[in-house]
Design a protein that fits this description.
The chain contains 13 helices and 15 strands. It has 417 residues and is an alpha+beta fold. It has a single domain, classed as 4-Layer Sandwich (Chorismate synthase, AroC fold). A five-stranded antiparallel sheet has the order 8-7-9-13-10. The longest helix has 24 residues. It starts with a strand and ends in a 12-residue tail after the last helix. 38% of the residues are buried.
């Protein structure tokens, strides 16, 4: 089973990811992995830290000569800002009598909760005496490790003919008007790469930037909506047989685990709830030459998933991101440990990280899809996996023909002694 863990703190020495279950023989394009990490750091509205960090993935296990070995992958994403936090985030004991240590720790001290963050519940949960112990791990900096994992999963998906892209469809209530339903994903990716907001609509991009700038001037922050699209998925990933095997449930959990994501939508899930069934369900028609399957559809309200399984249509997943809770203007809060009235602590932060969130959400969807591929097709090596996917795809393509030609076998009469 494909699985991963991450470790490390926002201002510690490094972030670490362990990805277990990738078959042997997968070629890893380091440049593509690092491009995903670079994209996570881009987007209009990002904070000053992105000028300090230049994230790159350092593979230290599970890959040899550019190819996976079947062993767990170990990936490091180093924090270049570590030098400025050596005493505060030191793993070993420090000399608290040292003036240099005292100065740095005092400068980085957090004595006020930030509403909307993990600060308050995390401090109670782990009985912490320093809010920083919560902030450092709960920080969205952790998503750099996830993006590295997701980039590896995208290499696997690419190898079996699946393409995944992400784009921003709304920021601060400003919608993008670009219609991507019938657009080739290469075109979507091109338009995203040309936009500072990762939006396919140039006019909306400029409106979003104005809104982000206004929020920055007011000491506020903005959220938004991102969409992940995937083409080339086999029919039948996931299962209807148990609650935890449903692919939409797995995707939703993966996406909801991303910092600041508060809602997930598959297809037209939200609008579908208020429409009659005749306007919701995607009718079936005879085969269309473009699908490579013995059936076709004219709509995709289901977003590529029916009954907990992929159905051959384009996957559409939307994630709704709340505004970042760290704001210069500050919210009413409490001091710690006195619990007296105060204004929330401000730590260097973004004004809008929706474009970056699109990269993270794509990584998490890619992980869920790669896991589903391996769950269905298995394979200790990519040769095995690719052959299994190819054989199944051929079965799906010829299913109607095969079924029509298949006749019941003759059953000999039973002879009684």
């Amino acid at each position: 089973m494909l699985r991963f863990l991450t470790s490390g703190e926002s201002h510690g020495q490094t972030l670490v990811a362990i990805l277990d279950g990738i078959p042997a023989g997968l070629s890893i394009n380091i440049d593509r992995v690092n491009e995903e990490l670079r994209s996570r750091q881009q987007g209009y509205g990002r904070g000053a830290r992105q000028k300090i960090e230049t994230d790159t993935a350092d593979f230290v296990g599970g890959v040899r000569h550019g190819t996976t070995t079947g062993a767990p992958l170990a990936i490091l994403v180093r924090n270049r800002d570590w030098d400025n936090w050596r005493h505060v985030m030191s793993v070993s004991a420090v000399d608290f009598d040292s003036p240099e240590v005292q100065e740095q720790i005092k400068k980085k001290e957090i004595t006020r909760f930030r509403p909307g963050h993990a600060d308050l519940p995390g401090t109670f949960k782990f009985r912490q005496k320093d809010i920083r112990d919560v902030l450092e791990r709960a920080s969205a900096r952790e998503t750099a490790a996830r993006v590295a994992v997701g980039a590896v999963c995208q290499e696997l998906l690419r190898a079996v003919g699946v393409k995944v892209v992400a784009h921003v469809i709304e920021v601060g209530g400003i919608p993008g008007n670009g219609q991507v339903d019938a657009m080739h994903l290469d075109k979507v990716q091109k338009l995203v790469s040309e936009s500072e907001m990762f939006c396919v609509d140039p006019e909306a991009t400029e409106k979003m930037k104005v809104s982000v700038k206004s929020a920055w001037q007011e000491g506020d922050s903005l959220g938004g909506v991102v969409e992940v699209l995937a083409d080339g998925l086999p029919v039948g990933l996931g299962s209807y047989t148990q609650w935890d095997l449903k692919i939409d449930g797995q995707i939703a959990q993966a996406v909801m685990s991303t910092q600041a994501i508060k809602a997930v939508e598959i297809g037209d899930g939200v609008n579908n709830s208020s429409r009659p069934g005749s306007q919701v369900h995607d009718a079936l028609y005879p085969a269309d030459a473009s699908t490579g399957l013995p059936f076709s559809r004219k709509t995709n309200h289901a977003g590529g998933i029916e009954g907990g399984m992929t159905n051959g249509s384009r996957l559409r997943v939307r994630a709704y991101m709340k505004p970042i809770p760290t704001m210069r203007r500050g919210l009413a809060s409490l001091a710690f440990p006195s619990f007296t009235a105060e204004t929330a602590h401000y730590e260097r932060s973004d004004v809008c990280a929706v474009p970056a969130a699109s990269v993270v959400v794509k990584a998490m969807v890619s992980f869920a899809l790669a896991r589903a591929i391996l769950d269905k097709f298995g394979g200790d090596t990519m040769i095995d996996t690719e052959r299994a996917v190819s054989a199944y795809s051929e079965y799906c393509r010829t299913a109607a023909v095969t079924s029509a030609k298949t006749e019941p076998a003759d059953v000999p009469e039973m002879e009684l002694e």
